Amino acid sequence: MNALDIVLLTGISGSGKSVALNALEDAGYFCVDNLPPELLPGMIELERQRPPGLQRRVAVSVDVRSVHSLPQLMPVLDALKQGGHKVRSVFLDASTDALVRRFSETRRPHPLSTRQTASVPDGETSSEQALVDAINQERELLEPLRELSTVIDTTLLRPAQLRMWVRNIVQAAPARLTLVFESFAYKHGVPMDADFVFDVRMLPNPFYLKELKPLTGRDQPVIDYLDAQPESAELLSQIEAFLLRWLPALEGDQRSYVTVALGCTGGQHRSVYCVEQLFKRFAPRGVVLARHREQDAR
Fold this sequence. Notes:
Blueprint: E1 5-11, H1 17-26, E2 29-33, H2 40-48, E3 57-61, H3 70-82, E4 86-93, H4 96-106, H5 115-118, H6 124-147, E5 150-153, H7 159-171, E6 178-185, E7 196-199, H8 220-227, H9 230-252, E8 257-264, H10 270-282, E9 287-292
Parallel strand pairs: 1-3, 1-4, 2-3, 4-5, 6-8, 6-9, 7-8
Helix pairs in contact: 1-7
């Protein structure tokens, strides 16, 4: 049997699935939007029967519009994996406030909104509450899929960032576990996609040094400065020891992705430095990705 490269793209409505699906199409995937789960096996079988030179990588977007068929999706994914196909599941999420703002800006109805809730006569407050209720209901319905997927929090991501992060995920070599290190700024909130969060604000802050302030944790002067601080080596060693102790257990629990978020005040110096250092330490051990929420937005 010819094994296929399959990406399942799902997530909360308004979180950026259209942008992500376009990124996959640009990366050479044959993309299908909102395919009912019960049709997925037939589609994959048709793709598998294509001549070897004409086989395509496949990306399928599934969302809450197929709510009545979602229970069928889990067994289908298990069967595809057991059949030798490389299946990656990517789940997009965002904060409720961000989703409400996006729906307000586009004036599109939420898929779970009814005509009655969309035309509530009590004004903006009632309409917004109806939207929040629909988002909360959607989160509950999609939670089983979220548990099986690598999650991307798009709350603060620009479209270009999201496209880059999706491409990085699907281009990573197949492995039992992919480890993602992500830097962030506490002043903008903790990433929703984090499995582990480490606060690195106790390290000396290069921001307060005039010559280092305009630089980032990827610039050599900042690296040299933080390397010279005894706290840096101690903190990195403790985080490394923690991950080495518990990653095998997560891998044994059939986890495909683990995201480790490291935060500082502005997301420019200390957290970026720590992500890059941990990336170097863990890169020889398997598939490791480094991304910087605030830095990548520049």
